[in-house]
Amino acid sequence: MDFGLILLVLVIAAAGYAIFIYNNLVQKRQLKEEGWSGIDVQLKRRTDLIPNMLETVKGYMSHERETLEAVTNARAAVQGASEAGPAERGRLEGILSGALGRLMAIAESYPDLKANTTFLEFQGALQTVEDEIQLARRYYNGAVRNLNVAVESFPSNIVANMFNFVKAEYFELENEADRAVPDVKFS
Question: Count of CB atoms within 10 A of residue 60's CB?
Fold first, then answer.
């Protein structure tokens, strides 16, 4: 009789621990989703800034058509990949960041553009959004790290496998050169 009671207590404790682990995995998955949502919002803000900035720049940089088209094409590719995973979005966002960086570097050659208050406002807004993207990326990658550790660690990996919890992808830029934040200073 004592053995049956001990066994029952052990089964109840194991079930309680499994429930605790399951709820912990759900929480980590939700934090990862929240982090991705934050990145998505900031990337959309940046994408929404680009058309107005390009309109401001076009009047000054009419013979820099290739650079303007590169930004436009990169923006279109990013918008078309809204449902893509973190790896693909990171690749496309890296291309867009590179195109924006080239645009800002070329804009250095246009003193009238550098003095345009509308362009300066877009430049400041873009820098703010880039900073917010960086913060959102850190939050998301931290949430992914926590989820991945829980999915791979014993004994939570047993519960994760039973309920199909899988490792998540980090949001990273592929190219080392793309990792550099574009310099958008025009002073």
Answer: 16
The pLDDT mean for the chain works out to 87
21 to 30, 50, 84, 141, 155: CA distances (angstroms): 14, 44, 29, 21, 9
Which region holds residue 164: left if phi is over 0, alpha if psi is between -120 and 50, else beta? left
Please check whether residue 97 is in contact with residue 182, taking contact to mean a CB–CB distance below 8 angstroms.
yes
Angle at the Cα of 46 (from 59 to 135), degrees rounded to 5? Answer: 140
Q: State pTM to two decimals.
A: 0.80
Neighbours of 47 (CB within 10 A): 18
Q: What number does CATH give the domain 21-179?
A: 1.20.1440.20
Which one, of 120, 105, 122, lies nearest residue 45 by Cα? 122
CA distance 35 to 26: 14
Residue 162's nearest CA partner among 13, 15, 9, 8 is: 15
How does pLDDT run across 61-74, given as a tens digit for each residue?
A: 777 778 888 899 99
